[in-house]
RNA sequence: CGGAGAGUAGCGCAGUUUGGUAGCGCACCUGGUUUGGGUCCAGGGGGUCGCAGGUUCGAAUCCUGUCUCUCCGACCA
């Protein structure tokens, strides 16, 4: 490609509404342009990258035995009513009507369509297992689209769906996809980690997320420093402290604590560390037969953070997790929020493992302006249930018993699930099995955010000059930068012939043949992030040499003109 | 949904307080100059000042309404 016949569209200045680096660089380097909130046009350079990512994904999916197909973006509402998600999915599902006033949705995902299709096309267990996928535009009407391409409303996703007659077969496909995903991110040249994940609203039991590691990531991931263990912090199990529980030595003592409510104030008043305090949070319990919510008490060590996702999975706690209002607390306990505690509580009490390990601790006394010290579970609290409801923290013991936890940030770019029969059951999708009986299928689903990978790759690979693409997904592999070509016939000749040679050899090359000063070309090529550049200038031409520069390492070297083609093939 | 901020040329911004012919830088066009890291000079094109209504002799500026965009929040007593 020649720059003069291409749409480079680079910008010197950063658009004011771009907050994160990948968004800024995607705009400046001319990869995308915003059309409206969460909607982006992909310019030629951006599309080149997007296509390279998609090609790698496609190749590895095919190698793993998945079969590509394509489903419509617009889907009839009745499929969603059948699966129950017309009601469940909420306002993220964009609903539209056609001219006949029939309801449709813009597909945020395709479980319904594929399940319906497979139900019609597949009739026998002999045709299974099968894994079908597509690479296609999705639409999710996000509450707040942000971070440019990272969380946009319209985006490209690779979604695959596998169908099985038994769990063993599902396990096998799941493993194959897990491996395919590792291969994909390996080939993309990104630093990534598969992590144990919450399956969320999509349902099912087993689930892994694939994260590209980057400071700006929205998710926190807990790693063991000495094993393969990695889990989303949402999910990572926080185990009880390993040291033996201390022997209680104090007796329960009441203290008047006017205006003491926060953990900080409590610590100051009792002159103790927050690790000696049990904090009690009141949340809604599951409603009774009349639909009335009681309250439940969640108890954590003062220095620990509640994990909402773990908490709302507890039997007896209402999901979605809802904190009790000040009035509800007052009504249930007859005291102010800051003095609520687990001792003599009339509510069901769920105690985090670490809080349950406390001895001689401080807590609220369920009496406004009063706290206890010297409290002990064995002697002072009647019935409690010990649960895991806190966020894992840096330095905690790894749940697999090996090493300590480190926490890093990641961008979720892939997610695989074992769905079980959630959709196949709702939509009665099955086949005849070996004994001629109708059998509902087991399903797996496997997603990759293709557009998000582009942004994540930039978050992980950039410097103050611009993007530093990994070779595999760079819009161009190599740039030719001639110095003042319009003034030197010799330079023009060599640049042209080199360009022709590289093109014939199938190299993805950008020939910057614009009549620009060298600085402009260098800056543009570095901003766009082309991994390799060849600089042709009078300076080295007398020695029959041209200069090579590597964008990632900054390494420079002089190359013999005659050997360039062979050399380029080796990089 | 709650809070905060912003809409003036393709991009970045000034002008709004105190109403009086719409500006600057980048980008773009023409000519010259320069040429291994965003040269310099001269000339030029481009804007219903988000939209609608109102006040006024006169509105980017004041008033009312409305739309759009951005950020933060919507767990941790």
Give descriptors for this structure:
28% strand; RNA-binding; alpha+beta; 571 residues
Task: Please tell me about this protein's structure.
The structure is a single chain. The chain is built from 17 helices and 30 strands. It is globular, with a radius of gyration of 30 Å. The relative contact order is 0.14. The strands form eight sheets. Strands 3, 7, 8, 9, 10, 11, 12, 20 and 23 form a nine-stranded mixed beta sheet that branches. It has a five-stranded mixed beta sheet with strand order 27-26-28-29-30, with helices on both faces. A four-stranded mixed beta sheet has the order 14-15-16-19. It is of the alpha+beta class and 571 residues long. The model has no long low-confidence stretch (mean pLDDT 91). It binds one RNA strand of 77 nucleotides through residues 11-19, 27, 34, 36-37, 143-144, 146, 261-263, 279-282, 300, 304-308, 311, 321, 323, 326, 329, 336-340, 364, 391, 481, 483-484, 487, 516-524, 526, 535, 537-539, 547.
The rough form would be described as globular
Rg result: 30 Å
Structural class: alpha+beta
Mean pLDDT: 91
Number of helices: 17
Oligomer: single chain
Which spans of ≥5 residues are poorly predicted at pLDDT below 50? none
How much of the polypeptide forms β-strand, as a percent range? 25-35%
Number of strands: 30
The major sheet is characterized as: 9 strands, mixed
Helix content: 25-40%
N/C terminus separation = 19 Å
């Amino acid at each position: 490609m020649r720059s003069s016949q291409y749409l480079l569209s680079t910008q010197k200045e950063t658009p004011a509404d771009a907050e994160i680096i990948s968004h800024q660089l995607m705009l400046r380097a001319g990869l995308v342009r915003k059309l409206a909130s969460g909607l982006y046009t992909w310019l030629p350079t951006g599309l080149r990258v997007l296509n390279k990512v998609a090609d790698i994904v496609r190749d590895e999916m095919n190698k793993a035995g998945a079969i590509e197909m394509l489903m419509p973006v617009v889907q009839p509402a009745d499929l969603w009513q059948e699966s129950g998600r017309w009601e469940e999915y909420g306002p993220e599902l964009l609903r539209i009507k056609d001219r006949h006033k029939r309801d449709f949705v813009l597909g945020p995902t395709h479980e319904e369509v594929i399940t319906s299709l497979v139900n019609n096309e597949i009739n026998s267990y002999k045709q299974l297992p099968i894994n079908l996928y597509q690479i296609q535009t999705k639409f999710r009407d996000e509450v707040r689209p942000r971070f440019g391409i990272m969380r946009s409303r319209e985006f490209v996703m690779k979604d695959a769906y596998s169908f099985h007659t038994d769990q063993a077969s599902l396990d096998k496909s799941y493993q194959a996809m897990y491996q395919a995903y590792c291969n994909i991110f390996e080939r993309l040249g990104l630093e990534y980690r598969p992590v144990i994940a919450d399956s969320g609203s999509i349902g099912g039991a087993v689930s892994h997320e694939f994260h590209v590691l980057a400071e700006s990531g929205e998710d926190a991931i807990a790693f063991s420093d000495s094993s393969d263990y990695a889990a989303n912090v949402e999910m990572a199990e926080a185990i009880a402290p390993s040291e033996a529980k201390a022997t209680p030595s104090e007796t329960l003592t009441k203290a008047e604590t006017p205006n003491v409510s926060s953990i900080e104030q409590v610590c100051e008043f009792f002159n103790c560390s927050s690790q000696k305090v049990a904090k009690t949070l009141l949340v809604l319990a599951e409603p009774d037969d009349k639909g009335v919510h009681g309250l439940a008490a969640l108890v954590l060590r003062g220095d620990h953070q509640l994990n909402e996702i773990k908490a709302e999975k507890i039997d007896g706690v209402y999901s979605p997790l809802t904190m009790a209002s000040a009035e509800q607390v007052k009504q249930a306990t007859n005291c102010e929020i800051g003095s609520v505690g687990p001792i003599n509580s009339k509510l069901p009490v769920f105690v985090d493992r670490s809080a349950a390990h406390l001895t001689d601790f401080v807590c609220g006394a369920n009496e406004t302006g009063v706290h206890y010290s010297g409290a002990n579970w064995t002697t002072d609290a009647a019935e409690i249930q010990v649960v895991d409801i806190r966020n894992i923290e840096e330095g905690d013991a790894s749940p697999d018993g090996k090493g300590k936890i480190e926490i890093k940030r990641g961008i979720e770019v892939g997610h695989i699930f074992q769905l079980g029969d959630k959709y196949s059951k709702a939509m009665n999708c099955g086949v005849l099995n070996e004994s001629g009986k109708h059998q509902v299928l087991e399903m797996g689903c496997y997603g990759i955010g293709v557009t998000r990978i582009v942004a994540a790759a930039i978050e992980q690979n950039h410097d103050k000059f611009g993007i530093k693409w990994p070779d595999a997904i760079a819009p161009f592999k190599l740039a030719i930068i001639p110095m003042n070509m319009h003034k030197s016939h010799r330079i023009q000749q060599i640049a042209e012939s080199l360009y022709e040679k590289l093109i014939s050899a199938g190299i993805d090359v950008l020939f910057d043949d614009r009549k620009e000063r060298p600085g402009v070309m260098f800056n543009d090529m570095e901003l766009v992030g082309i991994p390799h550049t060849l600089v042709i200038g009078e300076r080295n031409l007398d020695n029959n040499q041209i200069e090579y520069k590597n964008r990632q390492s900054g390494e420079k070297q002089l190359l013999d003109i005659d050997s360039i083609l062979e050399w380029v093939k080796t990089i």
